[in-house]
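User: Please predict the structure of the protein below. I'd like the answer in structure-token form so I can feed it into my own downstream comparison script.

Assistant: Understood. Taking the following sequence of 234 residues as input:
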Amino acid sequence: AAAAAAAGSPKEAQTIMADASSPGLRDASPRRPLQRRSSLTLRAAADTVYQVQRALFSEMALILTAVTTIATVVYFWLALAEMRNNQEAMLFNTLHTEYARPEMLDSFFELEGYRAGFDDNAAYTAAFLEERSKRTKQGQQLDHSRRLIQAWFHKLVFFEKFDLLHTKYLAVFPGRSRTQHFLNLVEPLAHGIARKRYAKNCFDSSTRLNSKWSAPTHPPALPTSSNELAGGRL
């Protein structure tokens, strides 16, 4: 710089000497590699943070998807269970209403009054079959009452058999005592008609209801299957 200043004019020499003595020019060359290194380090750190955030977001998305799927399955299962409970409650209410109809009560009253005049089932069945075969008015009324009550209990057995009504409802209503009363009134008559018509017993509902009434030494547990319910634990 001093040689250049000596070769040129005095004004140019002063300008060159001032520029050479400036701290900016003296420090420019050594700082550039450091700045580049710092820039590369910051960029690498930023890329690393971005990759970590991206991985976290992906994992969070998978977790949220799994939680949403599980919640949907649980909600769907609970909705189906609630729907089934509502349907069973409506069906149970319908059966209870049918049982309390005046026609059903009159049918029970008709058979109860007729059964009270006999000492055993054989005489009760024989007299009923005679009245029915003669087509008397009383025979027709008795047979109508028998059909009405028997059809209602058949309906219970079919609902339970096809899993339309849970046994916990049937264990409460009609319950053991009402079912036993039904069997005492209707079963001998139904068996008598079956033997006369088919030469054998074919009262299926009675068989399902009565197969476990033979040993009532203590109250049975609630039924757990259609066979147990059909066996007499209504």
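That's the full token string. The longest helix spans residues 23-99.
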